[in-house]
Structures are given as C-alpha cells and as structure tokens.
## 1
Amino acid sequence: MRRAILAVGSTIAGIVVLLSFKTHSVPVAGAPAATPGPGGSTGSAAGAADVAGAGAAASPGTSRKAKKAGHRTVTGKVAETARGPMQVELTLAGQRITKVTVLQRTNSGPESNQIDAVAIPKLINETLAAQSAHIDAVSGATYTSQGYLQSLQSALDKARA
C-alpha cells in the first residue's frame, strides 16, 4: 500500500514539474531572425555578415572602438569546424554584451546554410540572455554550435583581459 501511494505521489510530482517547465527562448530586441527565402527555404542568418568581405570588418584578435562612446568590439578567434570556419565579434558596453555579429560561418552547402539560418539566431539570443559562453548547443547544429562557442569564448577572454 505504501509503495502504491509513493508511486502515485511521485508520478503526480513528476507531471507537475514537467507541465510547469518553461523554455526561455524569448525574442531579444535587435537580435537577428531567420527569414524564409525563395521557395520557403531559409537563407543565410539575418544580421550575420556574409563571409565575403566579412574579414575586412575587423582584423582577427583585435579590439577597436565602436561608434558609440563607451562601446567596444572584440573579435574572437576563427574556430575551424568540419563544416567550415566560425568567427564572432562582440559589441560590449562595459562588461555587458550588447550585440553579437557572426563574421564567418560554416558554409559547406545548402544544408549548412539552412542549419546556420536556424542555429545562429538561437545562439545569439542565448548569448545575449546569458551574458556568457555558458549556453546550450543547438540540437542538429553541432558543428555550428561548437565553432560559435569556441569563437565566443575567445572573444570573451580577450574582452576580460
């Protein structure tokens, strides 16, 4: 009898916990979003700089003053993945991350573009919410997530040095 009561109580508690679970994917103002392209497929991540010409935006590993006073940008190292390079640039106000720009992204074909179009905005939103590199990888975008996190961590290390 005690086992039955314990089992029912545990089941009810588990269901309550599951039903009360809320995800934290809240849109952040100014964060890029994936937009459908022709034929309903998503193109490159909105707000992410195209790879062509992105290297001219800032030389890797350097900090430079942004246009706004008190803001600075820090460029992370290029993280080489099996699907191509990933590189991020952070805009900071003091120690607060105000913007994340992807300078280079994985690019091994249409499938990679579709994955990045979904994963990169999620990673950026998570970074802005967490204000650190302690964020979850995006399911189905392992290489993109790993490269993003490596470059993000190197940018944060430079910013705090």
Note: Confidence is low (pLDDT under 50) at residues 24-66.
## 2
Amino acid sequence: MSTSTAIRLSILIVSAVISAALSPLQSGDTTSTSLQRVTATEKGKLTNPLTITPQIIAEGQSLYQAKTCGACHGSNGGGIHCPSLINSEWIYDGDDDTLFRLIALGSSGLETAGYKRSDKEKHAGPMPGFAEAIPNEGDIWKIIAYIRSLEPK
C-alpha cells in the first residue's frame, strides 16, 4: 500500500470515528431518549430503525400493555375511549414519523410542532405525551411495530 493510500485510509477511519462520536443519534441507534430523537430529527424524517420480527412485535405488545396504551385504545387496539388502531383512519397520519411524535409528545405537542389533525376519525380526545413514561426511543419503535401488526391487511 502506498503512503498516500495509507494516509487517505487513516483520514477516512479517523473521520468515521469522529462522526460517530459527534452524532449519537444515527440511524439504527435506538438508545436515545424519545425527546432527543424528536428534537434531533427534522419533521417527517423519523422512520422505524428496527428490523421487525415476531420477537420485536411481542416486545411491543408487552410494552403496549405495560404502558397502559390498551386502557384507552383497547387491549387488541380496537379502541375504547380513544380511536381504534386497527382501522385505516388516522387522526393525524399513520406514518412512522407522526406516530412516534404523537406517542412522545401527545396530540397538543404534535400540533404545536405543526402537524394537522384530519377530520377522518371523529372519536378522539387529546392524547397525553408519553416521553417520560416511555423514555427509551427503542420502546416506542417496538410499540409502533406492534400497532402495525394490528392493522388490517
């Protein structure tokens, strides 16, 4: 290997290490808090970094129950006091970015961030934010994976 090639390779390695150290909120990293992820990511750019497996869905279901999502949305997602998660109607939008922010920030936080409510689903009160109750962003992504597993095909 020539000296110039070795120098270029060293520079690339050092750059990659510095970039990784300065950017802890990289794609695929689910160790950030949900609020860190929301703050660090441009509107519309959040996507679930997890590979969806039956184990991830099972963990999401367990978290859904443990974090009391089922108390309002029903144990099977069919809705009780709040909207159903198993129909195709979403109050805001059903994309990853909107769902993540809705769970973390709640409906008032989502609207403050510029997301608009649709008039498709009429049965909906305000949703509280769960960033404190579900601080690990990976847990929110698992819940979203579980919710997606409930959607009609």
Note: DSSP finds six helices and no strands in the chain.
